[in-house]
Design brief:
Distance between the termini: 37 Å
Number of domains: 1
CATH architecture: 3-Layer(aba) Sandwich
Bound molecules: 1-O-pyrophosphono-5-O-phosphono-alpha-D-ribofuranose, uracil
Structural class: alpha/beta
Largest sheet: 9 strands, mixed
Oligomer: single chain
Number of helices: 6
CATH topology: Rossmann fold
Length: 207
């Protein structure tokens, strides 16, 4: 089974609480998504390989270290877009490829509506989606990223339900999952409890 890393950090608890609060405005909500995405990025990048780069400081030459992998970010539209800039701040040379899914409100199944991938996949792909609820959107996205040819795939979510984690781990045991918090479960409409409501609508002010 794939590993699950739940961030356990006072900063995560603090920013997650402000994110969840129904009184948080879209403006602050976006800032909180961004802050939490930075904290996720710190964890998910821990084992990225480095190569030596010779530079000269103002005082002397030295062998520095820089990232050696081709890194791809795949935000799942729409809500994943809210995490993208945070990752790009830390990984400014990363490639951004897109997948569009929405959940059919009746069947709760993910429906694909957009895909933009290059001819060759990056060395490592970070899938970005703040919400991992039933896990349908994440599992389908990972299927498509595997068909693209990527093998090192990592899932980054802000809040997950146990059901979604179980589904992704079962279907994709090779994909590690990084989350800020794992919540109690899902309601009848497959919303995460206590959750934060609809992440896409809160990011884009389309409630
Ligand atoms: C949300 C969320 C995930 C999906 C999670 O997207 O951003 O993509 O639901 O649910 P699942 O794990 O049950 O598949 P939504 O369909 O609301 O689209 P949006 O991002 O455009 O709001
Ligand atoms: N998508 C969301 O945005 N929120 C949930 O709780 C579940 C799916």
């Amino acid at each position: 089974m794939g590993t699950v890393t739940e961030l356990n950090h006072p900063l995560v608890q603090h920013h997650l609480t402000h994110l969840r609060d129904s009184r948080t405005s879209p403006h602050i909500f976006r800032a909180q998504v961004r802050r939490l995405a930075i904290l996720l990025a710190e964890q998910v990048c821990r084992d990225l390989p480095l190569k030596t780069k010779q530079i000269e400081t103002p005082l002397e030459p030295m062998d520095g270290k820089v990232l050696s992998s081709r890194i791809g970010l795949v935000p799942i539209l729409r809500a994943g877009l809210g995490m993208t800039d945070a990752l790009l701040d830390l990984l400014p040379t990363a490639e951004v490829w897109h997948l569009g899914f929405y959940r059919d409100e009746e069947t709760l199944q993910p429906v694909e509506y957009y895909q933009k991938f290059s001819s060759s996949p990056p060395d490592v792909v970070f899938v970005l989606d703040p919400m991992l609820a039933t896990g349908g959107s994440a599992s389908e996205s990972i299927n498509m990223i595997k068909k693209w040819g990527a093998s090192d795939i990592r899932m980054l979510s802000i809040i997950a339900a146990p059901e979604g984690i179980a589904r992704v781990r079962k279907k994709h045991p090779d994909v590690p999952i990084f989350v800020c918090g794992i919540d109690r479960g899902l309601n009848n409409a497959a919303y995460i409890l206590p959750g934060l409501g609809d992440a896409g609508d809160r990011i884009f002010n389309t409630l």
